[in-house]
Amino acid sequence: MFIKTAFAAGAIDDATPIVEVLGNVLDFLLSAFGILAIIALLISGGMYLLSGGSEERASQAKRSAMYALAGVAVALGALVVIRQIGNFF
Prior knowledge:
Radius of gyration: 23 Å
Number of domains: 1
Number of strands: 0
Order of helices and strands: HHH
Strand content: under 5%
Largest sheet: none
Helix content: over 70%
Low-confidence stretches: none
Mean pLDDT: 84
């Protein structure tokens, strides 16, 4: 009876590998980041449309759109690097 209990409480054989768990977390974070980036681009587009001919406000909107796109590029680059590292494991 004790041996069966010890065997039942032993190592988990069907657990999800840590690489898959980390991949799922990365996918979630990148999805959230993608949503935030789209919102940032929409806001900067609205700022540009509502600048009313003001060069300062238009340049601020362009800068915020550039920063949002740079953030997307960095996130996609991180995704590529993480996926390539994950392929080794």
